[in-house]
Amino acid sequence: MKISVLGATGSMGGLIIKSALREGCKVSNKVSSKDKISDLFLNTDAIVDFSCPVATELMLNHVIKSKVLVPMVIGTTGLSGKCMNLMEHCSDFVQVFYSPNMSFMISLVNMMLYATSKILEGSYDVEIFEAHHRLKKDAPSGTAIMFGRTIAQARGDRFEDVARFTRYGVCPLRQDKEIGFSVQRCGSVAGKHEISFVGKYETLKIKHTAHSKEIFAKGAVKAAKWLVQQKPGFYTMNDFTRDSVIPMVRSLYKDLFSKV
Asked: Using an 8 Å Cβ cutoff, are 126 and 155 in contact?
């Protein structure tokens, strides 16, 4: 399988190239945000993009204009609503995979958050903390935003109505179902997320720590291998993990709740 990498000169781009070679793939094109976007699509089976919002938008506009049918795995974070709409447009005729985090364990955390939020039904305060290395530009992280959206969806809320990103000075009293975000940028932290469900008498915390960014590169390459076998459409980690997770959940439910 031949893979093109957008954002090839960045730290994640380098890790994706190494991971692709380890997985037996050929890296056909290494493109930075300063190179010609059209070079991405030459003699390749799929594109993996960990660049910047400007480069991602250029790639998507090129696909729409030229109708090139090359599947795209997009892990760039900090994307605008316009960019998300471009992805949806492209997915009408080509495979598009988007996830702000390519870790399989993060997808498990996301599922746990959905289930927990459904069960607790908004009766607990939710706070999301995330920490990343000092060079990360966007905040909160795409993963933290994804978690917030999952929790809001499970509770039947509109994310934009319940998310609280800023607290400074004299703050308004906390609102019901409010989801608070806090951010840390320092050192070389690959990624840390902690979600707290805080009630009057008890607190539940769900935490994930990435020890190396290699896990994201490995996940992106596996996603690309999976994506080329799919039909045109818009895909996420939920689609990628569904076939393995659903039988597992059914088995766990049966083992845990069935009468002996």
From this structure: no
Set out the domains of the chain in order of their start, with CATH numbers.
Answer: 2-102+214-246 (3.40.50.720), 104-210 (3.30.360.10)
Please pick, among 18, 89, 118, 136, the residue that the annotation labels catalytic: 136
Is 136 annotated in the active site? yes
Per the structure block, which two tokens stand in for 103? 């870790």
Strand (E) or helix (H) holding 150: helix 142-155
Residues, the chain = 260
What are the DSSP calls for 83-147, one per residue? HHHHHHHHTTTSEEEE-S---HHHHHHHHHHHHHHHHHTT-SEEEEEEEE-TT--SSS-HHHHHH
What predicted TM-score, i.e. pTM, was given to this entire model? 0.82
Respond yes or no: is residue 62 known to be catalytic. Answer: no
d(CA 2, CA 25): 6
Quick check: 47 and 6 in contact, CB under 8 A?
yes
Per-block average pLDDT, block size 10, for the chain (260 residues)?
Answer: 95 94 95 91 96 95 95 93 96 96 91 93 92 92 95 96 93 91 94 96 96 92 96 93 78 74
User: What string of DSSP letters covers 173-195?
Assistant: PPPTT-EEEEEEE-TT--EEEEE
Residue of 30, 132, 177, 193 marked active site: 132
The distance of Cα 50 from the centroid of its chain, to the nearest Å, equals: 11
